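tool_call predict_complex ligand=6-O-phosphono-beta-D-fructofuranose
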Amino acid sequence: MSNPLKQLSEAGQAVWLDFVDRTFMNKGGLAKLVEEDGLTGVTSNPSIFEKAIGHSDAYDEQLERDIAEEDVSVETAYEALAIADIKTACATLRPVYDRLGAKDGYVSIEVSPYLALETDTTIAAARRLWAEVNEPNLMVKIPGTAPGVPAIQEALDAGININVTLLFAIDAYKAVLEAYISALEARVTRGEPVDRIASVASFFVSRIDAVIDKQVDERVASGDAEAEALKALKGKVAIANAKLAYQHYIEVSSSQRWQALAAKGAMPQRLLWASTGTKNPAYPDTLYVDTLIGRDTVNTMPPKTMDAFRDHGTVANTLVADVEEARHVLAEVERLGLSLDDVTSALVEDGVRSFADAADSLYGAVAAKRTQFLGDKLAGMHEDLGAALQGEVEKTIERARAGGWSRRLWAKDASLWTGADEGKWLAWLAAARGEQGDRAQLAALAERARGFRNVVLLGMGGSSLGPEVIGLILGSGPGAPTLHALDSTDPGQVRTVAEATDPASTLYIVSSKSGSTMEPELLRAYFWARAEAVLGAETGSHFVAVTDPGSKLEKAAQEKGFSAIFAGDPGIGGRYSVLSVFGLVPAAATGVDIAHLFETIKPMTFSCGPDAPPADNPGVRLGAIIGTAAAQGRDKLTIIPSPKLRPFGAWLEQLLAESTGKQGKGIVPVDLEPLGTPDQYGDDRLFVHLHLEGDSSADHAALDALKAAGQPVVTITLHSPEQIGQEFVRWEVATAIAGAVIGINPFDQPDVEDAKVKTRELVNAYEQTGALTPESPFFEEGPLAFYAPSGKSGSGDGAAILKAFFDEAGPGDYIGVLAYLERNAAHEQAIEAIRVKLRDAHKVATVAGFGPRFLHSTGQAYKGGPVSGLFLEITRTPAEDVAIPGNKASFGTVQLAQARGDLDVLAERGQRVLRVHLTDEAAGLPALLAALGA
Ligand SMILES: O=P(O)(O)OC[C@H]1O[C@](O)(CO)[C@@H](O)[C@@H]1O
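tool_result ok
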């Protein structure tokens, strides 16, 4: 005996299934419905796939296979799963399609819900899905939003079957039917066939009642005078709305315009009742099927509704019954001020949002599985944040998800930050994909560099720190030269590099994005003269430049006959440039295999992609954590590296500090501060353990103790040192996102400039007068001379002055030791001792920098970031200075000018500062350590 579902088709209404699931289809569930219930179609949507893929392991095998190719994005991986299912469903329905001569037997797949409000990308997506599924009984589903309608028309015009989804309002449906007819007419005009183009208009039903009924209940509860009339509308409005939509369909079908198309074989665009599962348990479970039965329509049912209807549905020609009553219902809706227009437009918005939410959850599930399958190919991350911070982080992640931050980052949407020029500074995303740097030019350099023993890199900040990390962690390739990165004007340091590198066997890389930074200019003058004395006319062949097009350095390199000039991308700021030529040129010159580097990086770049929602996007997630921690007062990001990864912090410091430290906000990175016990820390820290698998250093136990004491710790695990390349990508994304959380532009560095200007003034004055502007210490003791900006001083002996200064440190403050000294092991040790002493005495974070290196890095945050610093600046009179060819000022003079300029600006910004000048280089530092008790 024919069951009610079958009777429906006999009454002219197609029964479709609003459900797809691989296991269900593999077990023959779909075929059974076709066979036994007369099913003639299938619809899917992002929520349906989310349920299927996100909550079962039926897709794991394919997913694991697909993402073995690591450059498969989450979206591509998801689509491959969905397309495979849709093809299976198309094959199951194909006999129906053939039997009915294309009148039915369709399977729908929806374009990405993120595109619901974009015409062009929707058209492109529809074309892509149509081509990829490549089955005549496919329908591509496009939301019938205002921007969707032109996309629908264009797709139909191109011969693609379309299921228009998310229709709630009769006017929206009218626009869609018009688009269908116009598309067919255009085809007829061009002499193209129209008899195989199918379309349905999916009119959503139950959601309307869900909203209206709620409004009715609220008004009744508030004692509305029209309570009875309002109550009479409950459960009626959605059906009335659908009935009147059908009346429009009948009207248009009988029009001459349609008849002309029908004569050419055009099939009607059927109304499809969607959202037909009953939401209100008080209503019959077959309500939205029983009441909407009519010819040339479709009802797509979730399995539960289908089972209910099969069991106890009633088939009658209800759709055209009681039309006057339907009109009355809608008139009542208006009379009672319920505004169906408002309800339906809100429902469209909700519908778009809820499909996007479902897609987020779906993409998140795919991204999480992807991470699982990538295993050790992807550096891992684990959080122990403590309940309070974790709760705040989850709120940020939800805000980021709802706001589409992963997508907006990659779309270079400046409104993610301050809406300034941020969009212009995101070319580092392409660099992360390995799209920067001419590989042939790099290979040629690598080949030529093999003839050298040393590579001397002259550059500051972003032009030196990344290459130095690569050089120190990955090392030189076999037979390739050794890297010496020089980012200082310290005469001792300049001399050390000069003495270690014979010009005859040295390749010099002068690296500056702007091409006008003072330090590389002076270093270039010095090393050029030194090389020229040995190499004469051959000097240029030992020099290469890396700089942005049109810079002063580019011009100088051309004039001097440098052997190569590598052009940077002006769309990348210095600190984000490591995977562009600024990092790749020194890496290639020292024999790093660039292709292999990007192979290693790839899993991270894809995992941080636009389609990986924040919770499952390693970069965005980390950004949410560090940004939220900073906003909650945990703004001292303390880097605890495995020994082999120690160099990474210098690069990370610049990235975090220069990007976020401005407008009195931001993150203060704390690098190379030895790990202490819980009692030595306040509640302003976030620890990041940069862990290299296999390292069993003592820090593990200390970190466990911190976690147990409630300090937040993020553990990042690299499975090999090579994965350091992945961390460049993760942290660049994280920093950009942290900028969005903190609410600043992470791509400018406004405060660095001020110190540069002050330094320039001092150096220029020196060039004219032969002396720096005079200054006098407020106190002298042996080899120590104490300076403070005007009006500030101290009393007692050196130890007392230092004590009084540091005693000002309170909770949340930090102490900075800014050493304008040679960066060498002995000085590093001395500074570490000072930091530990001060941290333990005052329970505050300590940072340190060698000047002028840190000026182009953390200096931005010290000047523009939180005004909670106490800075001890250490300068000295060098025992042996180094002259700079073509300049009156020596390196020692320039360095001192930089220190003074820096101190002035720090003081101007309200930071607390004290300078100790070592008048005797050898005796000074021990005397200072003694005065500090370190
Ligand atoms: O590559 P350039 O233009 O010489 O700049 C070096 C560094 O100086 C800074 O501009 C800060 O002074 C950094 O942002 C940059 O990385």
